[in-house]
Amino acid sequence: QVQVVESGGGLVQAGGSLRLSCDASGRTSGTTAMGWFRQAPGKEREFVAIMRWSGGSTYYTDSVKGRFTIPRHKVKNTVYLQMNSLKPEDTAVYYCKIDLAQGQRSFWGQGTQVTVSS
């Protein structure tokens, strides 16, 4: 029904930048938000950033404020995660999630690995 695909992960040195992309396709009408989460080895999955479709408001976890942004494609169901000033503690698998109004359902992507070397 809904496919979510992340891309753009990789290996980067501390202080560098990466941009992740998340494309949602299929029955995505009624999208209310798209966001990013991450899971480091041995840790729980945590919220990173979210873009609300209505009004375009964005929210970030404290540890990434001022370094990450979540721009949205103007037409497609695509969001990005622009990550600047990366730190080793940003190393994780990054997952994208889309929230739909109908049935209050959410769909996840498979994740993309981001590794920041010190």
Descriptors for this entry?
four-stranded antiparallel sheet; 11 strands; 54% strand; seven-stranded mixed sheet; mainly beta; 118 residues
Give a structural overview.
The protein is mainly beta and 118 residues long. Helices cover 0% and strands 54% of the residues. The protein has no helices and eleven strands. It starts with a strand and ends with a strand. The model has no long low-confidence stretch (mean pLDDT 96).
Structural class by helix and strand composition: mainly beta
In round numbers, the mean pLDDT is: 96
- Spans of at least 5 consecutive residues whose pLDDT stays below 50 are none
User: How many helices in DSSP terms?
Assistant: 0
Radius of gyration: 14 Å
Cα(first) to Cα(last) distance is 40 Å
| SS elements, strand count | 11
Give me the strand/helix succession: EEEEEEEEEEE
- Beta-strand percent range: over 45%
Per the principal axes of the C-alpha atoms, what is the gross shape? globular
List the helices and strands and how they pair.
Elements: E1 2-7, E2 10-13, E3 18-26, E4 31-39, E5 46-52, E6 58-60, E7 68-69, E8 78-83, E9 92-100, E10 106-108, E11 112-117
Parallel strand pairs: 2-11
Antiparallel strand pairs: 1-3, 3-8, 4-5, 4-9, 5-6, 7-8, 9-10, 9-11
